[in-house]
Amino acid sequence: xxxxxxxxxxxxxxxxxxxxxxxxxxxxxxxxxxxxxxxxxxxxxxxxxxxxxxxxxxxxxxxxxxxxxxxxxxxxxxxxxxxxxxxxxxxxxxxxxxxxxxxxxxxxxxxxxxxxxxxxxxxxxxxxxxxxxxxxxxxxxxxxxxxxxxxxxxxxxxxxxxxxxxxxxxxxxxxxxxxxxxxxxxxxxxxxxxxxxxxxxxxxxxxxxxxxxxxxxxxxxxxxxxxxxxxxxxxxxxxxxxxxxxxxxxxxxxxxxxxxxxxxxxxxxxxxxxxxxxxxxxxxxxxxxxxxxxxxxxxxxxxxxxxxxxxxxxxxxxxxxxxxxxxxxxxxxxxxxxxxxxxxxxxxxxxxxxxxxxxxxxxxxxxxxxxxxxxxxxxxxxxxxxxxxxxxxxxxxxxxxxxxxxxxxxxxxxxxxxxxxxxxxxxxxxxxxxxxxxxxxxxxxxxxxxxxxxxxxxxxxxxxxxxxxxxxxxxxxxxxxxxxxxxxxxxxx
Length: 493
Prior knowledge:
Number of strands: 12
Distance between the termini: 104 Å
Structural class: alpha+beta
Order of helices and strands: HHEEEEEHHHEHEEHEEHEE
Largest sheet: 5 strands, antiparallel
Strand order of the largest sheet: 2-1-5-4-3
Low-confidence stretches: 1-13, 443-449
Number of domains: 3
Mean pLDDT: 81
């Protein structure tokens, strides 16, 4: 029987391919790196106090470490240069004696020199200090030319417990090259290094620990007002908006943060009050026409007299229209309160004002108009029409026999000025801001309600404000004078 053919090498059972082994190793490395990252993330300080303490301690430790190394290096360099100068001075003096032929076999080292030795070109010792008597040449190497060589030996020939700074001076004599070895112990440098190192090893950690403790205490003291602010804000709910966070006396950034927080709480409290008042007023305004409408329907059901149906249906229709107008006003107010960007289309306010005045020619109190040829502003035709309509409705509702609409352009201030005047009882100075509140009705002659919702002026001011303008009540000889100012569009100039 023929053996089956294979297209490649037969993989022995139990062996793992090399590529698979590499992939397993790579996966293990990735897993180990992930574990290291998780560990570093867990060990990372989370609080500002801990991070500030760690940062200050790290900076101080690095600075002190660098300063310590610099100090040790400068000290060791200065002491080593002093020892080298002493050895070099002694070596040059001895080399001068050798060149002059006045060399003694026994040399007396100077006060700051530990040993001396003179060696010829053959390695024979010509002279030496008493502590090197009988010793061979200090170095087996023979210089090939005159010069000076400086170096540090870890163990000196005279005292092996300390480093030595050795100066080797080679000079020319009648018998050839002669080398002088002069060495000075670095015991003072080593002792100073040991003392400074011990002091720094004790002082640097102590100073770093002191800095960490002081930073921890100072940071905790500085962040204490922040914790008080956080704790107070955490306890404030939608029913406790009257509460305020404590303001520290430090007059620093934290104090300004507390003041800003209290200002925000003031706005939230005012918004909550306005919202609750608006809901209460809206409920009251909706309840009245609904109650009347229900009463009319109950009367129609209880007295199925066709002669009464016309009057009842007419009254029900009026209340239905009032409910519809109120719902439309509430919907527009809700849209104005959303904070969405206002429309930015270029609209000719003069055309909007003319159309609003023309539609009232047959009203009980007609509208006289004095309108500029052109006054383009940014907004939307719907919003601007509602602004003019609400002002005219308010004026007609309270006028005795005359309403005047004036539109002019203030080129100096780049604004369009819209005025609506009536000859009614006017608005007292104390109530000139209150009339723009929602569902506000004055207690004087201007409180006559002829189908208004109590939201017209509030909507008009909100529209003017959202379009970057204003709406105010200003002085007038007779009646009321409401003035809206809107910024002109760039195309106006």
